[in-house]
Structures are given as structure tokens and as C-alpha cells.
Amino acid sequence: MLIEFCSEVVEFELSNTTSVNITSPLFPIPYPNDMKCTWSISNSHTSFIRAVFAEVELGPVDELRLVGGANVNSGHNIMIMKNSNGYPNSMTINSAALWVLFVSDQSKRATGFFVTLQTADQLGKYNIHVVQLIKKSH
Predict the structure, then answer these.
(1) Is 136 contained in some domain?
(2) What tens-digit pLDDT sequence spans the chain (138 residues)?
(3) Is 127 among the domain residues?
(4) Which of 7, 24, 37, 110 gets the highest tally of CB atoms within 10 A of its CB?
(5) Is residue 2 part of a domain?
(6) For the domain that residue 28 is a member of, what is the CATH number?
(7) In three state form, how does the secondary structure of 63-121 look?
(8) What share of the chain is helix, strand, coil (3-state, %, to 5)?
(9) End-to-end CA distance of the chain
(10) Phi and psi (nearest 5°) for 4?
């Protein structure tokens, strides 16, 4: 049974002067089990969206995905995964539409995530200045 925190798709429109902050439910308190959350971000100004990860801490089988494209089921799918250096600090997606998907199971809970989304003119050049945030070491 999914908890009602994320019962509907939440939609945002980016502009050249605004950014959008998205967090897991209850962040920074550990998120509930059995979550499935979807956010839809559209960007009518450029073909690029930058994601800056202030913090990411997920349970061992929980998922955070970015899907570039107009359709959540057929877009370019990027799973945010931990490697030896931790989670990524940021990435730029070549798409004017972006989906953020978060799924948790019934096992270990964690703090979750905090991501800022903003428009970008091209890979590496951003319209909004975002202060580089330092992630926790785990």
C-alpha cells in the first residue's frame, strides 16, 4: 500500500529566473516505506535542465530516477546511483521536460534527497547561479 504523500504527480514549470527544489517526503527526516512519488518539470525556455544534488541518502534498494522527455515511460532514464565517490553533485539533462521518480520499499529507510532543478542554455552554462552545496559523507 502506498502512502498518500505522493498520491498525484506534482507539476512544475521552470523559467529563466526560477529554480525548483524537490525533496523526498519528510526530508530531512527519514522518508516512509512504500513510497512512489513522481514530479513533472517542464522548461519552455531551453532544451536543458540542470539538477544539483544537495543531499542524497537512499536505502539499499530504493530508487531515485531522472527521466528526460515528454513521457515518463519512454524518455531517457538516468538512475541516480552511489559509486565509490558517493552520489553525483550535479548533472545536466538534454531535455525540455524532466520527470523525477522516487520509489521506496519496505526495508531500510534513509534521509532521502534534496535536488534543485534549473534551466541551462547548454551543457555547462546555467541561467541561475546555485551555490555549490556539500553533501554528507556516508
Answers:
(1) no
(2) 334 567 788 888 888 878 899 999 999 999 999 989 999 999 887 778 889 999 999 998 899 988 888 887 776 778 777 766 778 888 888 888 899 999 998 888 899 999 999 888 755 544 433 333 333 333
(3) no
(4) 24
(5) no
(6) 2.60.120.290
(7) EEEEEECCCCCCCEEEECCCECCECCCEEEECCCEEEEEEECCCCCCCCEEEEEEEEEE
(8) 0, 45, 50
(9) 30
(10) -75, 0
